[in-house]
Design a protein that fits this description.
Largest sheet: 5 strands, mixed
Mean pLDDT: 92
Structural class: alpha/beta
Low-confidence stretches: 305-312
Number of helices: 17
Helix content: 40-55%
Length: 312
């Protein structure tokens, strides 16, 4: 996007969808952005990005409810501060991070699906957990996701669909998916990010998947639970949700190879290196928060969640 002033890149069709689906009014857009910016200036504990585009993304993710946007922004920067293992030292040229990124574990796919949505694929089974931790993988994935969000405007209106390929997932990976890690990830993405997830598709699911997934699901909002599709190894079932023309060649699609898509995103990460490194400073200072400071236990504590969950 570049620059501090927002320049709309949406087609007339998408602008119409933004009006119909997320209450965007182009005549009021600037005033809404300014309202949020002014509010942010008056929050002693938040050091936020103040450019139009960042604020607009949050407004769109909250369907232009000013109150929800404020809550989400506070939550986003709070999560960033409470998850230093995911948000500090995000250098795409760091040796270890680079080796994870070069595996192509997270791939935002080019183009749009039949409903104009972006599709993001993830292939966590490629990670060797004896070399890197779950936190390393999450950090690399979020870096890529953040650059993608920064660079793509359409998804802020149409939302996105995820395809999780669990091929070759190891037992150690499943063991590393602790309830605390899952709760943290779900809190960050559901409550912190202004994303509009429209579908979550799982393919090549292993035997042990259901046990872990039931815990994961317990942290999901009802709306999200309804958007989950588990396809197992049935690719025809996947194609009903995510058409072939947006999938990579390796998945029976026609949308470039995994290697090509991965290399494109490596270039984008390098181009955004300064942005990623600078991004670390945008966070909260809990010592300056009016009222009571927030802690990891407040946000990611799981004591309450498990009372209502029977894990047998």
């Amino acid at each position: 996007m570049g620059g501090d002033k927002y320049v709309c890149t949406l087609s007339p069709e998408l602008l119409q969808r933004a009006k119909d689906e997320i209450n965007e009014d182009p005549d009021r857009r600037e005033a809404d952005i300014e309202h949020i910016r002014d509010w942010l200036r008056h929050q002693p504990h938040i050091n936020a990005r103040m450019d139009d585009w960042t604020i607009l993304r949050f407004l769109r993710g909250c369907k232009f409810s000013l109150e929800r946007t404020k809550e989400k922004l506070d939550m986003f920067y709070t999560c960033k501060s409470l998850c230093p293992e995911w948000y500090k030292n995000r250098d795409p040229q760091d040796k270890k991070l680079r080796s994870i990124l070069e595996l192509g574990i997270v791939l935002p796919l080019p183009g749009f699906d039949q409903n104009g949505r972006r599709v993001m694929m993830s292939r966590p089974g490629l990670l060797d957990l004896s070399y890197a931790t779950m936190d390393d993988l999450t950090k690399a994935a979020i870096m890529l996701f953040d650059v993608y969000q920064e660079e793509d405007e359409a998804h802020t209106v149409t939302g996105m669909v995820m395809v999780e390929d669990l091929k070759d997932i190891s037992i150690s990976y499943i063991a590393a998916m602790t309830p605390v890690t899952m709760k943290k990830a779900m809190t960050l993405f559901q409550d912190g990010y202004p994303m509009r997830p429209k579908g979550l598709n799982y393919i090549n699911t292993p035997e042990a998947f259901n046990t872990v997934f039931n815990i994961f699901k317990s942290f999901m909002k009802e709306k999200m639970k309804r958007r989950v599709h588990i396809h197992g190894s049935d690719m025809e079932s996947l194609y009903k949700e995510v058409p072939r023309d947006i999938l990579p060649v390796e998945y029976g699609g026609t949308n470039g190879t995994v290697e090509e898509i991965k290399n494109y995103w490596l270039q984008r990460l390098d181009a955004r290196r300064d942005w990623l490194l600078e991004d670390e400073k945008f966070c909260v200072d809990e010592s300056k928060r009016p009222g009571k400071a927030k802690t990891s236990a407040d946000l990611f504590g799981i004591e309450g969640s498990f009372r209502k969950l029977n894990v047998d």
